[in-house]
Write a structure and sequence with these properties.
Helix content is 21%, strand content 6%. With 63 residues, the chain is of the alpha+beta class. Strands 1-2 form a two-stranded antiparallel ribbon. The model has no long low-confidence stretch (mean pLDDT 76). It holds the Pfam family IMS. Belongs to the DNA polymerase type-Y family. This is UmuC domain-containing protein. InterPro entries: DNA/RNA_pol_sf, Rev_trsase/Diguanyl_cyclase, UmuC.
Length: 63
C-alpha cells in the first residue's frame, strides 16, 4: 500500500476580520477599524485591527 502524501496549506491574512468588515460596510473604508469581543458582555479582546489603527495600541497586545 502506498503512503499518501499530505499537503498543509497555511495562509497568514493580515487584518483579515477588519478587511471583511470594510468590504461588507463600504462606509468604513476611510476609518480605522477594530474588531473586538461582544460589547453587551463587556468582555473580549481585540481580534483584528487595520494597519492604520494598530499604531494606537501597545504592540504587545496585537500580534
Amino acid at each position: 500500500m502506498l503512503a499518501k502524501e499530505r499537503t498543509i496549506f497555511i495562509a497568514d491574512c493580515q487584518s483579515f476580520y477588519t478587511s471583511v468588515e470594510k468590504e461588507t460596510h463600504p462606509g468604513l473604508e476611510n476609518f480605522p477599524v477594530v474588531v473586538a469581543g461582544d460589547p453587551a458582555r463587556r468582555s473580549g479582546i481585540i481580534l483584528s485591527a487595520c494597519p492604520t489603527r494598530r499604531s494606537f495600541f501597545d504592540r504587545r497586545a496585537i500580534p
